[in-house]
Write a structure and sequence with these properties.
By secondary structure, the chain is of the alpha/beta class. It has helices at about 15-30, 40-50, 65-80, 100-130, 150-170, 190-195, 200-205, 215-230, 240-245, 250, 255-280, 285-290, and strands at about 10, 30-35, 55-60, 85, 135, 175-180, 235. The protein has a seven-stranded parallel sheet, sandwiched between helices. The model has no long low-confidence stretch (mean pLDDT about 95).
Length: about 290
């Protein structure tokens, strides 16, 4: 196990949810933190709670490479470099392909794919210099598609493959590249979706066994930190998500899709009706940020 004490950890989406939990846990283990987000108030509150001596915060948009580069440069200037980067920022949209706002579709891919590229691109020179660790946050959605979540599913499958390619590119430079896959985690993203869409709650109820359960942010943070300390190439939370990776081919067959297909005729029209009534395809907090996505 590799200690994170004294290491510089760069986290996007660091103000809330998994990003915040990781920041608190890694700080407690002695890490220096570089935290970016578009939510200035919780970001500054977290900086105040942790203390500014080992924490650098920046309101920055992951979709803007220049902004991410500026934060990476500031991290090098203040802390000497970056040892670990966690590309965590992400959003999701609501509604089927027929109903989802096309702008929302583009925003999800912009944040979840382009944002990951920008984060890695800006920090990679320092990561290479320090033979560090890159962790990209994907999802169970990279393995198992869900109706009404096409933009999110596509983006998480995309960053899974991006990570696989990156790993091949930098292995000879001494850099370790990992990807994290989680099921439903009790983050603001999932909370907002449950609040906006009763159909989403119904969908969860139709899923078999552990697929219907939501894992706490605290549990997720514990699993992530252990994976980061060991420079894991794959992190799963809960652990059974790793099994889904191996049965992915089955999930695209008629047999694998049977359970979902049985409920789609009832639940998807309800979801689309709710999205239409909301007059938005993004969560209230994400929608409110306009073009700010980090």
């Amino acid at each position: 196990m590799t200690s994170v004490r004294g290491k510089v950890v760069f986290i996007t989406g660091g103000a809330r949810g998994v990003g915040e939990e990781l920041a608190r846990r890694l700080h407690a283990k002695g890490a220096k933190l570089v935290l970016t987000d578009v939510d200035e108030t919780p970001l500054k509150e977290l900086e105040k709670a942790l203390g500014a001596d080992r924490v650098l915060t920046a309101v920055a948009d992951v979709c803007d490479l220049a902004e991410m580069q500026a934060v990476a440069d500031e991290a090098v200037e203040r802390f000497g470099g970056v040892d670990i980067v966690i590309a965590n920022a992400g959003i999701a949209s609501y509604g089927s392909v027929l109903v989802v706002d096309p702008d929302a579709f583009r925003r999800v891919l912009d944040v979840n794919i382009v944002g990951v590229f920008n984060t890695v691109r800006a920090t990679l020179p320092s990561i290479i210099q320090r033979k560090g660790y890159v962790l990209v946050v994907s999802s169970l959605a990279a393995f198992a598609a869900a109706p009404g979540m096409a933009p999110y599913d596509a983006s998480k499958a995309g960053v899974e493959h991006f990570t696989n390619a990156l790993r091949l590119e930098v292995a000879h430079r001494g850099v370790t590249v990992g990807v994290a896959h989680m099921s439903w985690i009790d983050t603001p993203l999932v909370q907002d979706t449950k609040a906006d869409l009763p159909s989403f709650r119904r969908m969860l109820e139709t899923l078999p066994g552990p697929l219907s359960k939501t894992t706490s942010v605290e549990k997720c943070g514990d699993v992530f930190v252990k994976g980061i300390e060991k420079r894991r190439k794959r992190i799963y939370c809960p652990g059974w998500v790793g099994l889904i990776r191996w049965v992915k081919p089955l999930l695209t067959t008629r047999i694998g899709q049977a359970s979902v297909l049985r409920h789609v005729p009832e639940i998807l029209p309800q979801m689309d009706a709710e999205v239409t009534a909301l007059k938005r395809s993004l969560g209230a907090r994400t929608h409110g940020h306009g073009n700010r996505k980090g």
